[in-house]
Amino acid sequence: MTRILVAASVVVVVALAGFSFHINSIQHASVTKSVQDSISSAGRQASQALANWMNGRVVLTNMVADAVSRNPDAVTAVLDNQVLTKEFSSTYFGDTAGTFTMWPDLPMPADYDPRQRPWYKDAVASGSVVLTEPYVDASSGDLVVSAAVPVNRKGALAGVVGSDFSLQSIVAMVKSIDLGVPATAFLVNKSGTVLIHPEASLVMKTLADVFPQETPATGATMVETTFGGRDVLVSFVPVAGLPSVEWYLGFAVDAEAAYASLTAFQTAAVIATVLAVAVMIGAMAWMLSRFVVRPVTDMTHAMERLAAGDLTVAIPGEDRRDQIGAMAAAVSVFRTNALERERLEGEAEEGRRLSDAERREREAQKAHDQAEAERAVKALAEALGALADGNLSHRIEVPFAAHIDRLRTDYNAAVTQLKSALQAVGSNARTIDAGAEEIRVAADGLARRTEQQAASVEETAAALEEITTTVRDTAHRAEEVGTLVSRARDGAEHSGAVVSKAVAAMTEIEDSSGKISNIIGVIDDIAFQTTCWHSTPAWKRHVQARQARVSPSSPRRSVNSPSVLPRPQRKSRRSSRPRTPRCVQA
């Protein structure tokens, strides 16, 4: 609880402090702007009055210059004027010849030359009215300002009229400025030299001497600095309308007085923060005690009673819908679990109170079931042993207990199916064996026929070799015939006597050609008949018979010899005309 209060207090303090800081910043800016506006308003009025006062003296000096210009011979009479004597401490005229006339007439050094004085040179250089910077009069000790006006006569410079006047009136005027708050007014020029100040020791000092810590500039921006050990707000207002000089009215406002209202607000904010924290702590302490601490304390007591075994205790806060209600629900679960545990323990105790008779009955039933199971296991083991020995006719005839009798029926059905399957396998094996025997016999016959075919191919090759030899002889005879023809042609060319020999030779050639044709026909018949006979069973039997009659002592005997060849082939050798061969069927 203490931590909650501390955390809440810190949050409130931070929030109020932030709010107060924000309001303080706004009010600080507002007060600063208000002071700036007051300085600007009062400064403009004071600077206007100061400029009017100074310009009045300048106008009076201009009037003196005009009078001197019109009356060059009556300069002293012009200067000896009651108004001038009242307003100016002295009025004077210096001409271009170096003559100096002053009223009141005061003794001057013998070597005094007005043409070498700054007021004379500045007026001549500017050609108009000039004001000098204030200076301390040696005789009176007052601040004095000189106004100088060039005098022209007939378009030429005749001299310069000047007047000296004290700034005591301006000092009094500056001191009389009221801003509504404690403030100090002073006059400075554009270089920052103090011309008028309530403290005489600061006159003709610079702003850096007056404000050494943070020196303000002669601008319109207000600066917060220190003066005389106090915080001040410094601002400047220009004095407009003065000839040849730039002066500024400065104001140093006491910061504590200017921000007095802000200080009061800060004090009020601190007091309000303290009061708010105190009220909040009291309110939160009361609310926490009523809505948190008390319910938690009651729930703690209820949990202690539950831990002690009191299951009739009421859980406080069960009807709440907040975190306290959630805690109460959790405690209620503990109570419910305790009640359930107590109920289960009662049921367990009731189970332990069962009678011995019921327990023995259950044990007897259990023993009976175990005996039935052992008998079933034994019968099944015997049946499996018979099956392992190859006895497929063995069956389990004695029924088992009702809940395991299906094991017996399933075993008997499985053995029956196994027997049928083995019988089918035996029948298929015999069929496969018979088919294998037939395949073996067919393979043997195929092997014998293959050997016979190989022998026939060898005989055919021998016959083709003899045919090739015959063809080669025929070709040789054809070459001889060609030779004879050539000789006959040569003999015919040499002598007609050889014609008869040529005729005879041609006759022989004709006979030889007929023989060649017969030979070629025989070759064709042999080739065709060989092809036909090799493809007939009769030819095969004929070849086998000839092979059987051939003596082993003459293995090189050709199958194409006259004693081996069949009749159709021998007949074709006797033929004298070519013919188309035909296959002879045996």
Describe this structure in words.
By secondary structure, the protein is an alpha+beta fold. It has three domains: 2-258, Beta-Lactamase (2-Layer Sandwich), CATH 3.30.450; 263-347, Helicase, Ruva Protein, domain 3; 459-574. Helices cover 62% and strands 12% of the residues. The protein is built from 14 helices and eleven strands. The protein has helices spanning 2-70, 75-79, 82-87, 118-126, 168-175, 207-210, 255-258, 260-307, 323-352, 356-388, 405-494, 499-534, 537-549, 567-574; strands at residues 90-95, 100-103, 130-131, 135-136, 143-153, 156-166, 183-189, 194-196, 223-227, 230-239, 247-254. The strands form two sheets. Strands 1, 2, 3, 4, 5 and 6 form a six-stranded antiparallel sheet that branches. A five-stranded antiparallel sheet has the order 8-7-11-10-9. α8 (260-307) runs parallel beside α9, α11 packs antiparallel against α12 (499-534) and α12 (499-534) runs antiparallel to α14. It starts with a helix and ends in a 12-residue tail after the last helix. The relative contact order is 0.05.
